[in-house]
Amino acid sequence: MIGYLIRRIAGAALVLLALSAIVYALFYLAPSDPAILTCGKGCTPERLADVRAAMGLADPVWTQYWHFLEGVFTGRDYPAGPDVRHCPAPCLGYSFETDQPVTALLLDRIPVSFSLAIGAEVLSLAIGVGAGLLSGARRFRWLDRLVNGLVLAGYAVPVFLVGLLLLLLFCVHLRWLPFPTYVPFTTSPLLWAQNLLLPWISLAVIQTAAYARLTRAGLQETLAEDHIRTARAYGIPERRILRRRALRGALLPLITLTAVDVAAIMTSAVLTETMFGLPGVGQLLVGAVNQIDLPVVVGVTLLTGLIIVIANAAADFLYAAVDPRVQLR
Amino acid sequence: MTLLKVDDLRITFSDKPAVDGLSFELAAGGSLGIVGESGSGKSTAALALLGLTSGQVTGEIAFDGVDLLANPPWKEIRGARITMVFQEPLTALSPFHTVGDQIAEVYRLHTGASRRAARERAVEVLGQVHIPDPVRRAAAYPHQFSGGMRQRALIAMAIACRPQLIIADEPTTALDVTVQAQILDLLDEVRATTGAALLLISHDLGVVAGSCDSVIVMRQGRAVEAGATERVLLSPRHDYTKALLDAVPKPGTRKLEPGEPLLRVKDVRKHFPQPRRGSLRKPPPIRAVDGVTLDVHAGETLGIVGESGTGKTTLARMMVGLTSPTSGSITFDGVDIGRRRGRSVQMVFQDPLSSLNPRRTVGESIADPLRLRGVRDPRAEVSALLERVGLAASEYDRYPHQLSGGMRQRVGIARAIAPAPRLIVCDEPVSSLDVTTQAQVLDLLEELRGELGLSLVFVSHDLAVLRRIADRVAVLKDGVVVEIGPTAEVYEQPRHAYTKELLAAVPVTDPVAARRLRALRSTVSG
């Protein structure tokens, strides 16, 4: 187990290192001079030279990458005019646009994206698994058909359409909910949930469909297995068979999907964030790409990689916990 | 006293009869065998006894005064008074719960015992079915058990609530022959110690012979013959019973005329490296084949027998050059088999369904080796081959799933003889077939051998099959040949202890001999 953990973490570190190298290479292959971008408008050749020196752009790329890595692990110093500005680890540099540390920008956005992901997952899992189980166990024929129909609709409807309709209905016509703005959980849990409810619902509409379908298929597959027949032959009540045996088999594939979805919402739910005015990671990335704010792009990419690595590891551990046949090694 | 009375039982699936007027009686504490080939309706009938069939059921099933077709209180019957042992011990137990928990769950459900008492009962019955160290083993999951142990665990579950009737549906089909013998002995022991009646369902007459007082032979949903085991098996009246008994492989009568050594296997080893797990040291490799030396002579049939995991399939694959040995040499006609490009050695595989491309017609599959040989339009030749193996030339355009198991294996054989080989290696070619089909396929191989002057290597776990077809037999254990010699000699005067053990485990259709062997096994083990 310890050996597995060590290998797993080492593997993740390698992935992130390779990712950082690729992104950093893009940084310098891009057809734009970071120094000119930083220098801004009204840039004189002297100032440009200063900026170039300050950013260390005169050094070979290898050295620069090495300094970048150093910054991530130990922090680094940036010369800023006559002073030296210290950027503590993990240092990802400063935004070209706003001159804020990238780490701080990310730390601002992560709670928003995380809140979005958590709520959307709880909602879609609750509804999706519930509907999938009911239709998979064939308790209600009509529900089975309804779920099948909704699945297709959920896949087909674009998220911004759902979002706009929800806004129109609940915020404009009925006025039950305020126009969403992000309120931190620590400030007021109630306001936090109230403001995030509509984004959660619009994300859940799409995911619920997929979850319901996967649960339904998994349940029907598990119910057809031999050990379920054994349980029936030994007089175990149907309800207990569903709860104790079939459910586990049915939910296994959901673990992987949920992990992928969490990572996706945390890093690329741009449409939802934009529509509901939530300052999440996705918006940060889109803004940075538009303005060629390279340090931010690098930062968000590394964060995305980290989140995906963590989500996958969590899924593997959960899988092993649910299914005794799976061994981590 | 009659415990179970089945009268004129009919089960239909959308107007197709699966069971068509079956009647029998089983006395309390008695034992009844139902024998039939696949599709005879024997398993359907068994499931109906627990109300678990999805077909339309009519007739009468009376169990200890309860009418099982009139919506009886199943909760008190299933798993408590009637229990079932299923065929596939791996999939028949829940993979998510420990063996002990699963047994305790059933016991608690039917007796209302405390958790603790249920757990104790689980350990007790696991001990009763001879699971070593039952306290510790109760906490293991099914996938941590071997096939034989899983079946023991299922039997433990079956006896946990002290049932009046145990139904065993092909309980030993997936198991090795020595394990099969142990499980059959165990069922017999359980019947004697608990007083439960046993309904044993099998395709194998030999399985039923030693374990049941009376026997029903089923065919197409009907009982064609019923009676005391000795009477039915020793003096059968119905033609189908006679045909079944005839199909059971009998010792061959061929004389050995040793030809030149054709294929020479010299000190061959095949080791599979193991992945590193946890520790930094590399684990030792699996020694699938560990130093085998033998010759296959021209014109002979060499049988290779062994249980699962003895390396017999690996050896067979190396003989045709599909796998290369780790060390040692295999030569055919003096040329290394790995360098030999050509068609003189062919293989017939175990599972004809998965070894034929499902998306191509069987004719095309047979034509492949001919095309490799440069035949432009192989259709005529393929038709001749199809007819040679007993199929109609019109089967050319059919797909593997449209054929029966026996027909598919004939296709596999036609494909093997298409390039006119000199040696055919058959890996368990008849193990998935019914006994009558099995006999036909063996006859075909025998014919082809004489006619085409072939040599055969016949790999099997089934000693009875080999006794019928092989001139010489090699007994494989743990990747090593422990005994090799002329068939009659090996079967009548086995020298190695493992050969003796194997031979004692082979099911025989003579009930008297079956009981003698059981007694022999108990003195050997006990």
UniProtKB/TrEMBL annotation, chain A:
The keyword Transmembrane applies. GO terms for cellular component: plasma membrane. GO terms for biological process: transmembrane transport. InterPro entries: BPD_transp_1_N, MetI-like, MetI-like_sf. The keyword Cell inner membrane does not apply. It comes from the Bacteria. It is a multi-pass membrane protein. Residues 110-319 form the ABC transmembrane type-1 domain. SUPFAM superfamilies: MetI-like (SSF161098). CDD domains: TM_PBP2. It is found in: Cell membrane. Keywords: Cell membrane, Membrane, Transmembrane, Transmembrane helix, Transport. PROSITE patterns: ABC_TM1 (PS50928). The chain crosses the membrane at residues 12-30, 112-134, 146-170, 190-212, 249-272, 292-319. Belongs to the binding-protein-dependent transport system permease family. This is Peptide/nickel transport system permease protein. It comes from Actinoplanes regularis.
TrEMBL record, chain B:
It comes from the Bacteria. GO terms for molecular function: ATP binding; ATP hydrolysis activity. CDD domains: ABC_NikE_OppD_transporters. Residues 4-245, 263-503 form the ABC transporter domain. PANTHER family: D,D-DIPEPTIDE TRANSPORT ATP-BINDING PROTEIN DDPF-RELATED (PTHR43776:SF7), TRANSPORT ATP-BINDING PROTEIN (PTHR43776). SUPFAM superfamilies: P-loop containing nucleoside triphosphate hydrolases (SSF52540). This is Peptide/nickel transport system ATP-binding protein. Pfam families: ABC_tran, oligo_HPY. Keywords: ATP-binding, Nucleotide-binding, Transport. NCBIfam families: PRK10419.1, PRK11308.1. One of its GO terms (biological process) is peptide transport. InterPro entries: AAA+_ATPase, ABC_transp_ATP-bind, ABC_transporter-like_ATP-bd, ABC_transporter-like_CS, Oligopep_ABC_C, P-loop_NTPase. The keyword Nucleotide-binding applies. Belongs to the ABC transporter superfamily. The keyword Transport applies.
